[in-house]
Every structure is written in structure tokens, then in C-alpha cells.
Amino acid sequence: MILSKLKQYRVYFFSLIAPLIVFSLDLGSSYALNQDFMIGDEVLQYERFFRFYQQFFYHFDFSRFIYSFSNGLGLNTFGQTMYYLADPLNLIMLAFPNDLVPVGIIVLSILKVCLMAVAMIWLLRQEYYKLPSFFMIVISAAYALMGWVNFNLENIIWLSGLIYLPILIGFVQRLWYIPTRKDKMLYVLVLCLAIFSNYYIAYMLCLFLILYVLWAKFTYSLHWRQLLNFIFCSIIAVLLCGIFLVPLGFNLVDTRLSVGLAGTSLGNLSVSQVFSQFGALSSNVLHMANGYPQIYVGLFFYLFLPWYFLNTKIDRIERVASAVVFLILVLSCMFLPLAKFWQGMALPLSSTYRFSFLLSFWVLYLAGRGLIKLDSENYFRTKLGLSLVLWLLLLFSTVMSFILPSQKLTFWLILGINFLFGLVYLGLLLKRWYWLALAFCLYELILAGYFCFHTADHTLSQRFYSDFKQEQVSFTKLKRLDHSWYRVNLISPATTMDTVALNINGANLFSSNISASTVSLAKHLGLNNNKNAISPGEGPNIVNSFLGMKYIYSRHDMDGMVSVTDDVYLNPNALPIGFSITTNKKYQHMEPLDNIFSLYNQATPIAASTWWHRLDVDLASNHASVSNSRVTLDKTPGIDLATNDVNNIETKDVKGISLVNSTDKTGWVTLTYNFPLRTKHELVFDSSVFIDESGLEYKPSGVLLYINGKQYRANAEFLGQFQNAISLPNTNQVVVKYKLPKHTSLDLNKVHVYYYDQDIYQQKTKYIQKNGVSLTQKTNLFLKGTFNVGGNNDTLLFTIPFDRGWQLKVDGQPVGMNDFYSDFVTAKLHGKQLIKGVHTFSMVYHLPGLYFGLLSFIVGLLCFYVVVVRSLPNRN
Predict the structure, then answer these.
(1) Secondary structure of the chain: what % helix, strand, coil (to 5)?
(2) What is the mean pLDDT of residues 167-188?
(3) Distance (Å, rounded) from C-alpha 870 to C-alpha 178?
(4) Nearest 5°: phi and psi at 492?
(5) Across all residues in the chain, what is the average pLDDT?
(6) Residues 79, 255: contact at Cβ < 8 Å?
(7) What gap in Å lies between CA 763 and CA 759, rounded to an integer?
(8) How far is CA 24 from CA 17, 59, 399, 447, 452, in A?
(9) Which residues pair with 697 in a beta bridge?
(10) Beta partners for 780?
(11) Does CATH number 2.60.120 belong to domain 609-639+652-758?
């Protein structure tokens, strides 16, 4: 009995052979060639995410799924959790220790690809039960090894959707004809699992299910009433998932509003560009980088898909409906507006056609329907000569894309070779050599899958991630400049984004991660080019001044690489020093200390110009004067910034400042300044703009900076700007040299020089410490403590990124909160309500949209009971 059962399910075992062969070849060759099997996002993101995932279960602190202070200065983590970590299959990572997380990722990848093949076999056995087992194995192998899977294997969170797709199609078919209670329950359960595993791919699956049901309506002449079960059960599944979809929607809206959506710069594709991707020759890095859809499924497109449409045994209405669905998917891969619709109305920066796996699935699905109509009883022996010819053609078509330099020639060669394949295999079919044809289809899938995944992806790895096997960051020095400032130099070679992180007191203050949450964090700290960054005529970033650090320089190259040479200044009076430099290879989970919360008093203006003063250089008279215009800040509710900060500026004698312009024969323009400033001042040169004869701004090609004859590091990365900061001795002569082209007439338009007074800043810091927040209780979702009111009309400001989920109470009474400069949580405290002295506060974080999600879940449960539980237990 056991043997009969095993024999019955042996087709599932054989469906794993092709994927396991590909993985074995790649793992073996990676080891032999001393290459990393894990590439791309598997290293950049998932290794770190899964270590964080393990912390949830090891410490039983599931509040981090919602909000965490280990994510920057505090951030809503629900969106990231649902996108990256919600898949139930991720639980397998708990079986691997922290040091073996990369091994767990490889095992998880292999498991998901094998489950894809098993899921496809399950669908084929249910719908095409008359199809020979070998045919099913080949189709399932084509599904598990299609081009989309090979090129997106590093994004393992997406693969779960391809496991659920065949299963959902199978259960949808059961809903057409008097479904039982079990049929409805399983469909609702699988759809809920698909949405829960990855809502992004599940959105595409739901759209395809609607398209599939419309196809079935005409193919099987279904009555609209027969589709009601599908409609009701789908709505119930979405309502049940509302408990996390609604809060997720709130989080996505907030993320889009604060960060913005980036789109692709690619254009629409032509018919030849799309159809050429069905060939094995299309599996190369160039096509992936250009955003082409990955739709390779072996020879099924050239062989069995035409057979399906030309087979007169298949009903004409079905073939027309199938062609319409095929055309819709192809057009979606050609035109960006349609592609945008399939991907949540937003185009990604890379892998533009992420839904293209649906087109590959549809080709295989139709190929299976065509194979049913073939006479599968007569088989012929394979011919050795023909086998050798076909083997050489397959090998040639697979590896040629890595040799051909011409992209246009590649397209035509793809079409030509695969057309030849189609003719040869069609001849085999007409001769009823079915086994021979399908055997070579399977061979091509394994061969092309190996070359596609290993050679192409590792070419990508060598192109973008060549430095990953080396230490990412060279932590060169920690130098104390004087009694209050530390300088940390981060020097990173041309490594990839998301490889460098600076942790100060456990808060991730610097990171080049491109995820939405880190972009938001970078916006808070001025680590990218945004509205908070320095602009001509303004002082340094006010937000950084709050944190006791000054942002100097960070640059992302156009090709997505990051080259970092930063000076990060940390004031221990405002923030106790406790930092660590981490990379992807040595990431450690850290919690921030309590005293990152501070109270800022309105009596002492908090505008940056209080301690940063601008000197406007008058080029006509060669002298500088203190500007009467201060740094302009956005007006925000609850904070009055109308105080004229110029009155608080300690005016300096600037008559001794002189400016000398000269251009030598080498093309260097020399600007000389004399500054009679004290030791504890720093200078920042900003907006030294050159204007050519046509009135356009010119960016110097090089900058040299000398102070009292000593050269300092400088940069000219920002268009029309030069900025640097140095500590000045008592007597100073500053020489700035700009590299300009020879025989070019340029005028220096404006020079802004800021000097920084550390004494004034330290006075501010002492006031902040005196009136600071003291925490008595802290979790990820709850804060409790005391603060001191130093004067009337104070403003309570937390260094917590603003989130509408926080609710604040002062002395037990609710207090409305605002966002300061679109960044931090603030609360206006009126003098008539609070007197000077110590007061208590508490902050509770409620996940935005959670109550609406619970309401959706309750409604879904009621509908589930009425529509599913009370339905027929057995098929009549």
C-alpha cells in the first residue's frame, strides 16, 4: 500500500530533478571558481533582514514588527516587516544560527524553487490528468527555471507568489461547479497566505486571477452566477487580510508623502524587443540592466504555443480568448502605463517588468492545453545524429549572448536560432517523436538555466559587487580635535549602496541603504540632497545641529555606487559618544540610549544662525560684512520662529578680511582670505559660483584648500558650490584654488563664508541638558519620563521622526503634537497650562489604521461564516 502511494506521487519527486541539477551545478562551480553563490540583494538586504528577523523570536519582542528604535532614531517598521519578513516560509531561518544565515538563505531559495515545480505539477495533475507524467515534469521544470526566476532569485521574497499562483488557479476552477465547503475554505486560505507572504506580488496575482476568470467565462461558457463564488470568496480573503492591509496602506501613504516615488527612465519597448526575450539568448546582464522583461520559458514559446493556436481540435472561442489574454500581457510588457498598472501604479527603479512571470506562466499553461490534444501513445527512438545537431544548437544559443557585442545582432540571432528550433521540433512532433522533443526541451532548460543563473548573475556580481568579498569600510582614525569634538573619518572604496553604517549610541545615523525607511532617515539627518540640505544663502542643516552633529559631505555616483569620505562631528555635550562602524558582514543589533530626547526652549531661538554666522564677501570692495539675513526655516504649527536672530549675533571685526583674485597659467584661480578669528571657530565656504560669458554657472573641475600654508581636504562635488569646514588657529590666511579651463573668461559671482562659534553652541547644549527629557520607562511602543520647563511658551521637541501613531500626554492630559520641519515630534506647551518645574509625560504608539483593519477582519469573519462555513459540506 505504501509503495502504491509512493508510486502515485512519484511525479512530484521527479519534478524536483531539474531545479536541483541547476542548483548543484551552480553551487559546485561557485565553489570551484571561488565565487560567492549569494549575490545582489541576498547580501545587500536579506542577510541583514533575516538577522533582524531572528531577534524577534529569540527575544520574544514582537513590538519591533510595528515600531523600533533600532531603526535609525525610531521608525515604523510595519511596512518593511510585511514586505520582507511576513512569509511563513521564513520560519526556516530560525533553524540556522546567526553565523549560518547565508546558508539558510541558500536553503530557502532552493526550497522555494522546488515548491514552484511541485505547485505546477499539482495544477497539471488536476486539470491535465490525461497528460503523460513526463510532459508534466518538463512543464514544471520550465516553470521553475524560467528566466524571471533565474534573474530574480536574489529577491527571494517574490518567489513565494509563484508558488501560490498555480494553486490559486487550481482552486479557482473548483469554484465554478458547485464547490464544497472545503473548496471555498482552501481558496480563501491560499489567497490569504499569498497576500500575507508578499502583498506586492499578491497584487499582481489578484489582477491575473480576474483576467483568468474572464478567460474562463468565454472558454467554458460559464454563467455569471457561477462566478459569484469566486467574487465572494476573493472579497472575504481581502477583508480578512484587512487587519494588516489597512495599516500597511496607511504606512505606504506616509512613506510616499515623505520620501516620494522614483520612476524609471526607460521608454516603451518594441515588439521585437519583447518577443526576443523568449529565447535562451536573451538571458544576459545587458537585457536585465536595460529593464527588459524576463520571460524565457525554453522552447515552449516557439514550439508548443504555436501548436496550441494552430490546433483545430481546440475550440476557436477558447483560442481567441487565450490570444486576447496573451496580447494583454505582451502589451503590458511593451508600454509603461500598462506596466505601471500591474505594479501598484508605481514603476520601480530596476526590473521594470516585475509582473512578466505571469506571461511566462500563461505560455506554459497554454502549452499544456495543447499537449493534451496530441496523440501520446506512439513514441520513436531518438536519432544520434539529430541529437548531436540539436545539442550544438542549444549550446550555441545559450552562450552566444556573452560574446556578441552588437545588441541588434543579438536580437536577430535570437529570433533566427529559435525559429530554427521551432521548425526542427515541430518536425519531431509531426513525426510523433514527442519524447525526443520534450527531452531536449528539458535539456535546454537545465543548460540555459545554469548559464543564465550562474554566468549572467555572476557577471552582474562581478560588475557591481566586486568588492564584497573584501572588508567594506576602512575605519582609519578617531581623532579628538579639541575638548568637545570628535572626528570620525569613514573611508569606503567604490562599494555598493547599503554597505556602510555608522551607529552612534545604537542609532543608525549614517547609512546608504536605499530603502524607503532609510531614505526617510537620511532626510532627517541631511544625508542626501533634499530640502534640509545646505543651499546657497543658507546656513548648515538645522536638524543636524539639534542632534549635536554636523553633516559635511556624502555623495552617490550616477551609477548607483557610493563613494564616501565623510567628516562626522559629534558633540558629547549633546549626545554621549558610543559609536560603532558596521558593514553587511558584521552587522550587530543595537539599541539607542535614553538621552536622545531633548527639550528645546523657545526663549533661546533654535534657528541655526544663532551659532552659524554668514559673511557676505563684496567682490567690488574686497571686504566682507555680517549678513543681515538669517537662515530661513519653514513655519510649522506650534513653533514661533519670528525672533530676529541677527540681534543675537556677536559681531566680529571683519575689516581685515581681504579678497585677492588671480589666475595662473595652469588654469588655477586663487582666492585669498584673511580671517582674524579665534581658535574655537570653524569656517565653511559655501556657494563660490563662477559665471561664464553666457551667464551660466560653472562647476570647477578641482579645488585646493590651504590654511596658513597647510593643505586641507576639499571637494567640489556640488554644482556651483564648494564647502568645507576646518578648525582655525589664531591668525589665519585661507587660500582656495579652483581648477578652471584655460582661455576661459569666468567671473566669480558670489562667495558666502560661514564661521562657527563653538562657545555659543556649547551654551545651547548645556541649556538643552538642563531642560532635557529623563526617561523612566522605555519600550518600542511606550515612553514615560519627566522634563523640566525652563520658561513660558516652551516647545517640547523629541528627536523621534514624526509619526501620527504617537500619542502624547503631559501630566495625564492629552497634548496635540505637530511635526517640526516635517521631521520631528513636537508639542507646544502654553505657559498658562504648565508652570516652571518638573512635569511628567507619556507617549504611546498606536499603529495607524489598526482599528479600521480590525473592523475589516471582523466583517470578513462574519462573511466567511455565512458564505463558506454554511455552504455544502460535500459535492452533490
Answers:
(1) 45, 20, 35
(2) 88
(3) 14
(4) -120, 130
(5) 61
(6) yes
(7) 6
(8) 10, 36, 19, 12, 14
(9) 691
(10) none
(11) yes
- Compute the distance between CA of residue 503 and CA of residue 490 in angstroms, rounded to an integer: 12
Most confident of 156-160, 484-488, 664-668: 156-160
Model-level pTM? 0.65
Residue type, 427: G
Most confident of 83-87, 447-451, 636-640, 849-853: 849-853
CA distance 773 to 594: 9
C-alpha cell at 669: 584661480
The Cα–Cα gap between 119 and 162 comes to 9
> Alpha-carbon torsion 204, 205, 211, 215, what sign?
positive
Q: Is the pLDDT higher at 332 or at 591? A: 332
Spatial neighbors of 458 by CB under 8 A, at least 6 apart, are 30, 35, 39
Contact of 298 with 445, CB cutoff 8 Å:
yes
Which residues have CB under 8 Å from 512's CB, separation 6+?
A: 497, 498, 499, 500, 556, 562, 564
CA angle, 788 as apex, 784 and 789 as ends, to 5°?
A: 125
828 or 223: which leads in pLDDT? 223
Q: What angle do CA 619, 623, 628 make, to 5 degrees?
A: 95
pLDDT in tens, 732-761: 566 666 665 554 455 555 554 555 455 555
Angle at 799 between CA 793 and CA 803, to 5 degrees: 95
Ramachandran bin of 821, using left for φ above 0, alpha for ψ from -120 to 50, beta for the remaining angles: left
Which distant-in-sequence residues (6+ apart) come within 8 Å of 442 by Cβ?
Answer: 18, 137, 138, 141
Label residue 629 exposed, middle or buried (CB < 10 Å: 0-12, 13-18, 19+): exposed
Q: Where are the beta strands (DSSP E) in 505-622?
A: 507-511, 549-550, 555-556, 562-570, 579-582, 612-618
Output the pLDDT for position 822. Answer: 46
Report the C-alpha gap between 485 and 40 in whole angstroms.
38
Contact 798, 817 (CB under 8 A): no
Contact 188/864 with Cβ under 8 angstroms?
yes
First to last CA, the chain: 30
C-alpha cell at 158: 517574490
Give yes or no for residue 620 having a pLDDT over 60. no
d(CA 876, CA 859): 29
> How confident is residue 320, by pLDDT bands cut at 50, 70 and 90?
very high
pLDDT of residue 421 exceeding 50, the answer is: yes
Q: Cell numbers at residue 173, please?
A: 476552477
User: Is the confidence at residue 370, as pLDDT, over 70?
Assistant: yes
In sequence order, what are the beta bridge partners of 580? Answer: 503
Given a contact cutoff of 8 angstroms between Cβ atoms, the answer to whether 49 and 473 are in contact is: no
CA 156, CA 109: separation in Å to the nearest integer?
6
* In the chain, where the domains are located: 2-461, 472-582, 609-639+652-758, 771-845
**Arithmetic mean of pLDDT, 79-93:** 86
Q: Are 287 and 277 in contact (CB under 8 A)?
A: yes
Gap between the Cα atoms of 90 and 93, Å rounded: 6
734 Cβ contact partners less than 8 Å away, ≥ 6 residues apart? 672, 673, 674, 675, 683, 705, 706, 707
pLDDT at 19: 75
